[in-house]
Amino acid sequence: MKPPTVPAPDRDLVVNETFGPTFQGEGPSTGRYAHFIRLFGCHLSCTWCDTPHTHDPTRYDLTAEQRILSIDDILSWLAAAPVDLLVITGGEPMLQPRVLERLLLAIRDRSLATDIEIEIETSGTIPPTDLLTAAATRFNVSPKLAHSGLRRHQRIRPAVLRHLAGTGKAVWKFVVQEIDDLDEVQELTEAYDLHPVWIMPEGTDSSTVLTRMRLLAEPVLSRRWHLSPRLHTLLWENDRGR
Predict the structure, then answer these.
(1) Is 154 annotated as a binding residue?
(2) What are φ and ψ of residue 171, in 5° steps?
(3) Extents of the domains making up the chain
(4) Confidence band, pLDDT 50/70/90 cuts, at residue 184
(5) 143 labelled as ligand-binding?
(6) Which DSSP state fits 13?
(7) How many Å apart are CA 104 and CA 93, to the nearest integer?
(8) 19 labelled as ligand-binding?
(9) Annotated binding-site residue? 169
(10) Which residue among 4, 73, 121, 231 is the one 20 to 30 A from 29 at the CA level?
């Protein structure tokens, strides 16, 4: 039997999948042409998680769901089909900070990628390092609400939220199921000075997403927040790699 591949410290990323070109489906860059790197592993387990294949051993063979990619592998992939937006998502990207630092610095060092924007999607429970903060264009931070099934101390880390807010590079994307969830969003945004705020309907099929967007539209407008679709879900339902 072939032994499992072991990632080299600070040189290899543990990845679930890479895909693109596609569109960024959420938040302030919705609709932009982009590539995605979905990293493997998450320390949270939301009841409605749309990427359980990155971390849930009860439903997936996690050995089959992970790949080891070197920084050079990823740079070659990006060079083959250049884009001006790279989205690093998960799972939870902040679980691999050191090699992520090296990747972002390597991308910045490549002359063909000097203008690339890099968005990192995170739950806001692990602070980014100084190097990641300097190299990233934006953090799309998605603090989890009570309907995630997580205890508050698991999902809300005040010091981390304040740190991310202080970077000046964070936007705040809250996954919402019903109108009453907006009161919890209001409490968090006021307590930790989180802005700008994007509200996104929870759902993994187009019917649910549209229904919830219509339900939330007027209440979100009244609070002067932004409303985000899940564009990839509206276009391709729950297909992976889209």
Answers:
(1) no
(2) -115, 155
(3) 12-173
(4) very high
(5) yes
(6) E
(7) 12
(8) no
(9) no
(10) 73
Q: Tell me the HSE value of 211 on the side-chain side, using a 13 A CA sphere.
A: 9
Task: Give the C-alpha separation, 242 to 233, whole Å.
Answer: 9
Q: What local confidence, expressed as pLDDT, does residue 114 receive?
A: 54
Tell me how far CA of residue 129 lies from CA of 77, 94, 187, in angstroms.
Answer: 25, 9, 27
Site of tokens 């968090």: 188
Is 25 known to sit in a ligand binding site?
yes
pLDDT at 148 over 60: yes
Q: Residue 74 corresponds to which amino acid? A: I
**116-127 residue pLDDT tens:** 999 999 999 999
pLDDT tens digits for 100-147?
999 999 998 875 445 899 999 999 999 999 999 999 999 999 999 999
DSSP character at residue 5? P
Average pLDDT, the chain: 94
Does 49 carry a binding-site annotation? Answer: yes
Tokens in use for 103? 């990747």
The pLDDT value recorded for residue 43 is 97
CATH H superfamily, domain 12-173: Aldolase class I (3.20.20.70)
Token reading at 229: 């679709």
Rounded distance between C-alpha atoms, residue 227 and residue 18, angstroms: 27
63 annotated ligand binder = no
162 annotated to a ligand binding site: no
Measured distance CA(196)–CA(27) in Å, rounded: 10
Residue 235: which residues within 8 A CB-CB, separation 6 or more? 23, 242
